[in-house]
Design a protein that fits this description.
The complex is a heterodimer of chains A (383) and B (326).
Chain A: H1 4-9, H2 20-26, H3 54-79, H4 93-101, E1 108-110, H5 116-122, H6 131-134, H7 143-146, H8 157-172, E2 178-183, H9 190-201, E3 206-212, E4 215-216, E5 219-220, H10 232-236, E6 240-244, H11 248-263, E7 269-274, H12 293-300, H13 304-315, H14 320-342, H15 362-381
Parallel strand pairs in A: 1-2, 2-3, 3-7, 6-7
Antiparallel strand pairs in A: 4-5
Chain B: E1 3-7, H1 8-22, E2 26-30, H2 46-50, E3 55-57, H3 62-74, E4 78-82, H4 93-100, H5 103-106, E5 116-121, H6 136-140, E6 146-148, H7 153-165, E7 170-175, E8 182-186, E9 198-201, E10 206-210, H8 214-227, E11 232-236, E12 239-241, H9 245-255, E13 258-265, H10 270-282, E14 291-295, H11 306-309, H12 313-324
Classes of the chains: A alpha/beta (383), B alpha/beta (326).
Chain lengths: 383, 326
């Protein structure tokens, strides 16, 4: 069996860029659910169909464009010293917007630290996502406000939180579902394996959404697994499917189906969104040390935004005025984000001691008082 | 049920039963806690009475147990998880330290993590490797966690009630070698605050501070010392995070000497912290340096050697003599 992650990285002899998406199936590699080809042609899939209005299609396009713009602005802000670090989602917009738009408001999302597009879909203020990267907080939002949990940095931990939350939904007799995001690197973590075990054993309504972006910092997928990741699910007793992660329609259709499955008591499912991280792992990373330019070029031909635009234009679902207006909206978003970040206040000194315990703690109280007295001593000296 | 004599195992069982009855959001989770009733039978009969949905047998995966408990807490449940043995908590240590302890603060206080982690701990039961450890310091060192250990049936019952009602994560260390010791439990009493130390035996010449399994050892030491005309006060600390330093200070101001006793290694242990703080607070009251009796900087030894490793009556009395000799 061919491991498709390798196949995708190395252009097949004689294969052209245009053949890209179709070669996978043709070569006997794992089938990829696809509804929109890299050229922007609409194709059907026997198990996952979707019928969207022109307005809905434009909505998905708008989500992806604005998310990409927000992400680019955050990268720029990092380069300008306004953020300490940024984890870009460039290239993964379709995976995130497709899956994010598949969720219902009462569903609960457990992200890793790169799910800016999913946060966008959940209505999280994008500037909230930047506090952690600017260093003004370690999370910074109320997860229950949009049912979008805090970003989780330790790889794969959140898969268990998602599973536990889903077990709670079952106990409540509710028909909500949970979606847990993680990457191909996280698939090697014990916590993800344990989450699969618990989810299967308790038939928890959780969808595991793995964005296989081909690289875990500098480690390629082959360093994580010898089988296509979606096939892992079978060993735990639930279905797994590989979807074209650069195809927003396929990501939406497959995630919707998986969430519906979960809500109707049919248990967990693993979705492997086969995609590509176009940029660095984070702004601290240098991908030129471990991957070739040709690889990125190969994936640029599968760009999620370009392909939806091609489809919208071909079908006449969007006109020039729409694209122009979106460009303006994009600029406004970027300016808003820039202004908000630059004026984001540093936390109060005493925040060190805030919210460590819900019920208080004598040592924290004592140290808070000592710290306050120490700080106050400077004020007294200056008098 | 009002006042009666009960073992610690039965008191914890009664406490879990009360919590399950009083609050439908309370769950008991862990390996073998259901039909078997736990390897120490602490959860005996609970699944039979409350069902598999409330008393949950889990897969054999400690990180999974704690990680899913966090998710359940986020959904509004109050999970009480059992880690089968002290040395088995480390696969879950990441979830406890990097996730459970910090999540309330990361969410700016908007979410609560009412998770209790019960860990049977300590030695003297002739067990194999990883079954006799005292890792309390590793948890007490982490902000966001509370760490307690009862030494008798009444505290076992009430401190667990308080831990379950707390909106903070609590690590509840059960002194497994004392599981079957019986003492008075009044389920209608008004309990002391969870983190308050208790004078287990008043005395005038020296304070022995201990918690969990070592409280009984210290009480025995105090009884033996009395025969030699020495009056030792025994303080049951009950909580390692936070530590009731005010109570220790008050005791030391009376007795002017302090020996801290625990099974965990002395190096960087609870006793080290207490010695440092009490030296700061009571420098002019102390007639002797604060001494510590505890485990060595060595892996917990094979059980044929554990009597040498663990603080026993003689080692405690030796430290008492040294402190009184200053």
């Amino acid at each position: 069996m061919t491991v498709d992650s390798t196949a995708a990285r190395k252009p097949r002899r004689g294969g052209s860029k245009r053949a890209g998406a179709k070669t996978a199936a043709a070569a006997g590699a794992p089938e990829l659910v696809q509804l929109l080809t890299p050229e922007g042609e609409r194709v059907e899939h026997p198990d996952y169909s979707i019928d969207l209005t022109a307005e809905e299609l434009r909505g998905l396009y708008r989500d992806m464009v604005l998310t990409r713009r927000f992400d680019a602005e955050a990268t720029t802000l990092q380069r300008q010293g306004e953020l300490g670090l940024w984890a870009s989602l460039l290239g993964q917009e379709a995976a995130q917007i497709g899956s994010g738009r598949a969720t219902r408001p009462d569903d609960y999302v457990f992200p890793t630290y790169r799910e800016h597009g999913v946060a966008w879909c959940r209505g999280v203020d994008p500037t909230n996502l930047l506090g952690m990267f600017r260093g003004v907080n370690n999370g910074g939002w109320d997860p229950n406000e949009n049912n979008f949990h805090l970003y989780t940095i330790v790889i794969g931990s959140q898969a268990l939180h998602a599973t536990g939350y889903a077990m709670g939904i079952t106990k409540d007799g509710a028909d909500s579902a949970v979606i847990a995001y993680f990457g191909d690197g996280a698939s090697s973590q014990g916590d993800v394996a344990e989450a699969f075990t618990f989810a299967a054993v308790y038939n928890a309504p959780v969808v595991f959404f793995c964005q296989n972006n081909q690289w875990a910092i500098s480690e390629p997928t082959e360093k994580q697994t010898r089988v296509p990741l979606y096939q892992r699910a079978q060993g735990y007793g639930f279905p797994g499917v590989r979807v074209d992660g650069n195809d927003v329609l396929a990501c939406l259709a497959v995630t919707k189906a998986a969430l519906d499955r979960a809500r109707t008591g049919q248990g967990p499912m693993l979705i492997e969104a086969f995609t590509y991280r176009m940029g660095a792992h984070t702004t601290s990373d240098d991908p030129t040390r471990y991957r070739r330019d040709e690889e990125r070029e190969l994936w640029e031909a599968k760009d999620p935004i370009a392909r939806l635009r091609a489809y919208l234009e071909r079908e006449g679902h969007a006109d020039e005025a729409f694209f122009a207006a979106l460009e303006t909206e994009s600029d406004e978003l970027a300016k808003h984000v820039r202004d908000r970040v630059r004026t984001m206040p540093d936390p109060d000194d005493m925040a060190i001691f805030d919210n460590i315990y819900a019920d208080g703690h004598a040592l924290v109280d004592e140290e808070r008082a000592q710290f306050a007295a120490y700080q106050a001593s400077f004020a007294e000296e200056s008098h | 049920m009002t006042a009666q004599k009960l073992s610690i195992v039965k008191a914890i069982n009664a406490s879990l039963r009360t919590a399950l009855e009083n609050d439908p959001k309370v769950l008991v989770m862990g390996e073998d806690v259901g039909k078997l009733g736990g390897v120490f039978r602490v959860t005996d009969g609970l699944q039979k009475d409350f069902g598999e949905d409330r008393v949950i047998d889990t897969p054999l995966a400690e990180s999974g147990i704690v990680g899913t408990a966090i998710g359940l807490a986020l959904r509004g449940y109050r999970p009480v998880v059992e880690i089968q043995f002290d040395g088995f908590v480390f696969p879950a240590y990441d979830q406890i330290v990097t996730q459970l302890a910090k999540m309330h603060a990361r969410a700016l206080g908007k979410i609560k993590l009412p998770v209790v982690i019960r860990i049977p701990y300590g030695g003297a039961i002739g067990a194999v490797e990883h079954h006799s450890e005292s890792p309390e310091t590793l948890f007490a060192h982490v902000a966001g966690l509370k760490v307690v250990s009862p030494s008798n049936a009444s505290d076992a019952y009430w401190m667990l009630q308080q831990a379950i009602q707390s909106d903070d994560p609590v690590i509840y260390f059960e002194p497994k070698r004392r599981y079957h010791d019986k003492s008075e439990l009044d389920t209608e009493a008004i309990p002391a605050p969870l983190h308050a130390a208790r004078v287990a035996r008043p005395g005038t010449d020296l304070t022995l501070a201990a918690y969990g399994p070592m409280v009984k050892t210290c009480l025995e030491a105090a009884a033996a010392a009395e025969e030699e005309g020495k009056s030792l006060e025994v303080l049951d600390l009950r909580s390692m995070s936070p530590v009731d330093f005010d109570a220790i200070q008050a005791s030391v101001e009376r007795t002017r000497r302090l020996v801290v006793v625990h099974e965990a290694p002395v190096f960087l242990g609870t006793g080290a912290e207490i010695a440092a703080r009490i030296t700061e607070r009571c420098f002019y009251h102390l007639e002797a340096p604060v001494l510590r009796v505890g485990g060595y900087h060595a892996p917990y030894p094979p059980s044929r050697l554990e009597d040498e490793y663990l603080p026993g009556l003689d080692r405690v009395l030796d430290a008492v003599d040294r402190a009184l000799a200053y």
